[in-house]
């Protein structure tokens, strides 16, 4: 094998291994228990509340509820973050076409690895304060998640 071919193959191998290392750098870190304030906006309507996600070796389970504790939806996320399954969806959102859009949006949000990241009409952006926003331009949906800082809450109490 010629030296130039060997160097080329080594460079390609190095690039592939580096991309594998950085492939697990997700915008939303899911270790143990995570809490976020969430806002879902859709054509003038808005759902605000809290998103709680608990992660173990089999994947993640999460819930989105309003400030009064009423569940809007529960979801599970596979360990590789490629599959989201919606469960216990509130009646006004319990339509197959709504669930399909929300499921695909959450799937894209949890699998995003860089900011800004765009695929089709979906864009994910991380802001300086650590919040993450997904905009679905096709259906005019906007999801905003901001981490709840437990230390600030404990100091305020």
Describe this structure in words.
Helices cover 27% and strands 39% of the residues. A hairpin with a 5-residue loop joins strand 3 (59-65) and strand 4. A nine-stranded antiparallel sheet has the order 5-4-3-2-1-9-8-7-6, covered by helices on one side. The chain contains three helices and nine strands. The protein has helices spanning 3-22, 96-111, 150-156, and strands at residues 33-42, 45-56, 59-65, 71-78, 84-87, 117-119, 122-126, 132-136, 141-147. It starts with a helix and ends with a helix. The protein has 157 residues and is α+β, with helices and mostly antiparallel strands.
Which structural class do the helices and strands define? alpha+beta
Strand content: 35-45%
Number of strands: 9
Could you tell me how far the N terminus lies from the C terminus, measured between alpha carbons in angstroms? Answer: 69 Å
Approximate shape: globular
- Trace the largest sheet across and list its strands: 5-4-3-2-1-9-8-7-6
Order of helices and strands: HEEEEEHEEEEH
- Helical element count? 3
The percentage helix is 25-40%
Mean pLDDT: 83
Poorly predicted runs are 14-23
Could you describe the largest sheet, including whether it forms a barrel? Answer: 9 strands, antiparallel
Give the C-alpha Rg.
19 Å
Keywords:
157 residues, globular, 9 strands, nine-stranded antiparallel β-sheet
Provide a brief overview of the structure.
This protein is of the alpha+beta class and 157 residues long.
Topology:
Layout: H1 3-22, E1 33-42, E2 45-56, E3 59-65, E4 71-78, E5 84-87, H2 96-111, E6 117-119, E7 122-126, E8 132-136, E9 141-147, H3 150-156
Antiparallel strand pairs: 1-2, 1-9, 2-3, 3-4, 4-5, 6-7, 7-8, 8-9
């Amino acid at each position: 094998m010629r030296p130039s071919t060997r160097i080329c193959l080594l460079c390609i191998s190095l690039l592939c291994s580096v991309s594998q290392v950085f492939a697990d750098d997700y915008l939303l870190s899911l270790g143990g228990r995570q809490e976020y304030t969430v806002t879902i906006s859709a054509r003038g309507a808005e759902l605000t509340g809290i998103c709680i996600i608990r992660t173990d070796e089999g994947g993640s389970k999460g819930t989105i509820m309003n400030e009064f504790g009423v569940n809007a939806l529960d979801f599970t996320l596979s360990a590789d973050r490629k599959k989201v399954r919606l469960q216990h969806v509130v009646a006004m959102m319990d339509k197959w076409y709504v669930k399909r859009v929300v499921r695909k949006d959450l799937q894209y949000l949890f699998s995003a690895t860089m900011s800004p990241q765009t695929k089709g009409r979906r864009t994910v952006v991380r802001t300086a304060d650590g919040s993450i926003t997904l905009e679905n331009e096709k259906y005019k949906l906007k999801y905003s998640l901001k981490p709840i800082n437990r230390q600030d809450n404990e100091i305020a109490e």
